[in-house]
Specification:
The complex is a heterodimer of chains A (122) and B (115). Helix content of chain A is 0%, strand content 53%. Chain B is globular and about 40 Å long. The interface between A and B is medium-sized, with 22 and 26 residues.
Chain lengths: 122, 115
């Protein structure tokens, strides 16, 4: 049974870099054709897809965040990570890691982490 | 990028009643080049991550009760909960994968309250 778990600081200062890691357990993130994604949720903007990384390291970002976002993968640790630089209060959100499954559920997100709240404040 | 608009904002119904949730897309989610509508529905309860209910507009995800069903095509998609149960109280989101852009978008959600 695959599980995803986000980890990282819950508080980040404005202008600094927000860093989160998603640990995949129960299976290897290289085991299938999955798009390992980050999604955030705020009361104002709802759910917003941020970007995905493939186990090969290929990435694709939401154009609205592309200039500030970097995703990476560590297959040895079965983890993938997010770095969002130059954060502002608008980046305060619950951040989820999730798995998009193109083959079984037509690119829907069939696995989600529990989410982690990140607040940007001095 | 397709914009998804969900209605109503809130739905308040009694147990056993039928809930009809709408998701309207700014462009057709159907594509002549692929067989899937790439339209999904999720349920989110307070403090929890979204849970996949429906994929490809009609497919029921693993473990989802058959009282949940998806329908529609083009720009009008619908989630139906045929017989509401108290545990169905949640916010429901539609989501589309745009194969041409390689991006995912979500609707703003419909809150279902059980009286």
């Amino acid at each position: 049974h695959v599980q995803l778990q986000e980890s990282g600081p819950g508080l980040v200062k404005p202008s600094q870099t927000l860093s989160l890691t998603c640990t995949v357990s129960g299976d290897s993130l290289t085991s299938g054709d999955f798009y390992w994604s980050w999604i955030r949720q705020t009361p104002g903007k709802g759910l917003v897809w941020l970007g995905y990384i493939y186990y090969t390291g290929n990435t694709y970002y939401n154009p609205s965040l592309k200039s500030r976002l970097t995703l990476s993968v560590d297959t040895a640790k079965n983890q993938f990570s997010l770095k969002l630089n130059s954060v502002t209060a608008a980046d305060t959100a619950v951040y989820y890691c999730a798995r998009a499954n193109p083959m079984i559920v037509d690119f829907a997100f069939d696995m989600w982490g529990q989410g982690t709240m990140v607040t940007v404040s001095s | 990028e397709i914009v998804l608009t969900q209605s109503p904002g809130t739905l308040s119904l009694s147990p056993g009643e039928r809930a009809t949730l709408s998701c309207r897309a700014s462009q057709s989610v159907s594509s002549q080049s692929v067989t899937s509508n790439y339209l999904a529905w999720y349920q989110q309860k307070p403090g929890q991550a979204p849970r996949l209910l429906i994929y490809g507009a009609f497919g029921r995800a693993t473990g989802i009760p058959d009282r949940f069903s998806g329908s529609g095509s083009g720009t009008d998609l619908t989630l139906i909960i045929s017989r509401l149960e108290p545990e169905d109280s949640a916010v429901y989101y539609c989501q589309h994968y745009g194969s041409s852009l390689g991006t995912w978008t979500f609707g703003q959600g419909t809150k279902v309250e059980i009286k």
